[in-house]
Amino acid sequence: xxxxxxxxxxxxxxxxxxxxxxxxxxxxxxxxxxxxxxxxxxxxxxxxxxxxxxxxxxxxxxxxxxxxxxxxxxxxxxxxxxxxxxxxxxxxxxxxxxxxxxxxxxx
Length: 107
Prior knowledge:
By secondary structure, the chain is mostly helical. It contains 6 helices and 3 strands. It has helices spanning 3-12, 35-47, 49-60, 76-81, 85-96, 101-106; strands at residues 17-21, 26-30, 61-62. The chain has a 3-stranded antiparallel beta sheet. A hairpin with a 4-residue loop joins strand 1 (17-21) and strand 2. The radius of gyration is 15 Å and the shape is globular. It starts with a helix and ends with a helix.
């Protein structure tokens, strides 16, 4: 097995996590961020950290059974304007492992 195959296998074996959001009476399955996703979020955060947080949620939250995306791009405006920002921020922190996009940019 080549080194790249070993690296790919290692990432594929990373565990998904379940994030419970009691305020919404739901849970999401979230897979680890890959480097391309991190790059896209970092670039987005240069323009707007809030937009990057919402994009992160749309990108990474799967339904409770992990079978499909929980949010669509069309949900973006509602997440930005009609949802509790405290819950949105907490969810984003849990997805990234308690580091903000701004903290990711510092490294």
